[in-house]
Prior knowledge:
With 143 residues, the protein is mainly α. It has helices spanning 24-40, 47-61, 67-83, 86-90, 94-110, 114-140. This is Telomere length regulation protein TEL2 homolog.
Amino acid sequence: MPVFYHLFVRRRDKTTLDLLGEDCLMLGRLIYTLGTIMGASKHAPAAPQMAAHMMEFVWTLRYHTEPYVRRSLLFATAMVIVSIPGHFLMTDMQQEMLECRLWLIDIVERDADAECSQMAALNLSLFENHVKKELTINASLPT
């Protein structure tokens, strides 16, 4: 169950936010904020675990109908890519990142929002450069 599940549950006895519906602007801001926190925690010991949870959160909302929310998800994904060492992305998060790469390609090719497509292309470039740099560093190390 995602960490922020309780924000999405509607209760009849209280007034709540409908983050998946009419309050999606607040959802987008929440995701941008989480992405900013992810970027600021680059060297924190808990950053890899935070990244895994962030990608789980992104994954559950990746096909949201509102472009603003999709843009915020792309921002959060970029923060994961730049904040986590490439070796962690390619070992412990390999499956998630390969699926994320396919999702980014799908956005570039099919998303109706031009800004989403552009951000997805930038994320793909970030990811490929990050991995390429990691492979270059590993290849130059003596065995």
